User: What shape does this take?
Amino acid sequence: MVSLPIVLAFGAVLFGIGLYGVLGQTNAIMVIMGVELMLGASMVNAVGFLRYSHPEATSGSFFVLVVFTLMAVEAAVGFALVVSVFRHSRTAEVDDLTELKG
Amino acid sequence: MSELATALVFWPAAILMVVTGLFVFITPSMARAGLLLLASLAFAGLIFLALASEFLGLLMLLMMSGEMVIMVFFMIMFMPDPGGLMGMDMVHEKRRSATVAASIGVALAVVAILTDWPVRLAGTDAPDVRAIGFEVMGRSMVTFLFAAMTILFAMVGGVLLAKYGGRFGLGAPSGEDRGGAG
Amino acid sequence: MTAALLWLALALPAVAASLVRFSRVDPRTAVAASLLAAAPSWLLLILAAGGTGGTEADSSFVWLPAAGLEVGLQLDGLSAAMAATVAATGVVVIVYAVGYFEAGERRRSAITGLLAFLAAMQGLVLADGYLTMLIFWELVGAASFRMIALSRDDPAAPPAAVRAFLTTRSADLGFYVAVLALFTASGTLDFTSERPEGLLGAAVAAGLILAAVGKSAQIPLQTWLSAAMAGPTPVSALLHSATMVAAGVYLLIRSYDLLAGLPLEIVGWVGAVTAVLAAGIALAQKDLKRILAGSTTSQLGLMFVGLAAGGPAVALFQLVAHAAGKAGLFLAAGIFQHNRGTTSLSGLRGAGREDPFALAGFTICALSIAAVPPMAVFWSKEHIVASAEKASEFWFVLVLVAGAGAAAYLLRPLLVLWRGERSGEIASSGRRPMLAGLMLMVTGSLALGLVGEPLAALIAAPELPGSRLSLLFSLGAVAFGSLAVLIHRRPPLRVSEAFRTQFRIDDGIGLLIRRPLFATARGLDFVDRYWIDAAVDGIGRGTLVAARAQQWIDRRIIDATVDGLARRVGRGGDELGRVQSGLLYEYFRDAVIGAAAIAFLIIVAALL
Assistant: This one.
């Protein structure tokens, strides 16, 4: 059956996949997708706690709502950044964006 | 929803979500990756439903269907090989990234399993939409307004960033394709 | 009131000098400035004369309270008479100088210098003690140096200035010795202090006499005065006839009580011998101004004798009377110089004929100096003759010989000026002020014979010693001297040469002073070069060696260490710089690893 540790472990696996995407993908869009996946994992965690730890708490649902917002905002700003960067340097490959190199 | 029903929905959804999430970063095609992410997050919505959060689950499904369509557009716009027909490797430092990601994931999972979580009596249903509504419009009003403002700022900031002549547009080389970013 | 006047007498000439220096000097300003500068001195004379003889007013400020040293001015009969004489001569000479110098930088410089000299000289005669007097004594010497060197175009002027300054300056050392000895012995530098006993007293007396001999150009330090004739004629008239050289006599008059006894006798001998020898020197010169310089030395010698034999009143009377006459002679000589462009006797032949005014002035002043009645010096020399007769037969004879010499050495240029034919025109530029100055001096030469008694009263001296007999002696000497010149115009060449070269005193001084000095200098040079320099060089070389060793250590050990460290640090920096790749995912990865590490630590801490 399903229990809190199972849900959390599942969230951890999802988080790892998302992290792999962020670290491993060469394209900025794909990096953003990795972040989305990580945020999704955190939402799964939150819902798991909501279901198995504090079913009556409305603030749990609200927390997930906030993470939703965060996801949307992250995606919007991230895409805007990608557009801007692409226009500047004609690429969205993170390997080419080394302006911060010391 | 009963235990059994929950398990019946949770397990397939969870497995499918992990698989689709994994394939997001394996497939060479951008469009496919976008659609796989959409599917993955849609399975998350299913999981929410299974875990008795109907409102959140439906909201998730709704949002993902919209957001991921937009994302696909972007992918097609900025990917060097949106269709994945050229067999480009879109991954760098594969092994190190995988190692880090795997160890972090395993560590978190181990922590999740080994921790002695305080478990309440199961069976009680999650709060209904009404209660969430009261939460949002009552106790958490300020936080919600803050989130709303964040979205607003994100919209304005995103537009400013992406707009031609914005943050990076001023010093752009001449002869630039003005319509490039749509 | 009196105190203010005293300081004004000093300050106004100085202020006037600075004003003149920075103004365009037209004649009227110069005359006004000189009158302004002289006015306080005359007021002082009136004040002093108004009080019953020996009025004194002091104005001092303490210089070193602990030592009791005071710098101040005082007014008494003597200082008032001197100040008035100096001021009067100064005004006349400045009026004259306006005509003598052409308008321009030279004139401005000259009048500035004359006014500055006036200030210094007034300070000297108004001083209330030896300290103040010494200060102004030096200033007078410095002013004299500046004035002699005024005609820089003349190659003889700068060396003459140096010689005058060095001679008087060396003699001034005597003044320093005297002041130090006096202060050591009695702790005060007042004029009224008594001569200390023993060696210190001898030092005081000897120092004062030496200073006076140097300043008044007495034998054997007389050569600087004839050399100083290289300066402009107005300068000679003021500095080297009437005032500066009189400072020596004034010093002795001031120290009359201090010098009582043997020192005064020495003064008398020096004066008597100088009077005769300087008369001879004057007789042997071929240059009008040099004749006058010799005459000045001779007359100052007479003052010395007068002081030694007859007291302050005699010397002071002679000083005042002589000032007018000798200054007048110089002024006349300056006019001739203006007409003929030279002062050598050969060049002045007949110069008197073409300029009767100047010749008249010259003659009257010459008669005064030669002590022909009824001129001023006739009345003053009478007293010298009388007192010398009373004091010592030798002095008496020497004074009479000097009197005859005076007649002779002044008759000679008179004849030269009168004989010969006129040649050339009278230079008209600046003639009026020059003649005015000469006329004033002629007036003084005519009138000052009357001031003998008042002067004696002013300085509260006993009756002047003159008598009919001494008048006759004096006249006889004059007649003899005149006859000698008229009959035997040329003295034997060898004697003349000896006198003209002033007995080769300079060579003697060279032998006595310069040679040992140079020998010592050479010896010191040797020591310097071969001992001290060698030591210094050795130290330098040693330092160099040490420095090289130090350099080696520095470079091979310290620098190497520091460089190595720096290189290693730099390499470490490069290594670390690779971390900052600019690649976002690497940063993110590191952040994740870091976060995991922190979480691990927290967990470990929680579990423990």
Remarks:
- Residues 83 and 92 of chain A are 8 Å apart (CA to CA).
- The radius of gyration of chain A is 17 Å.
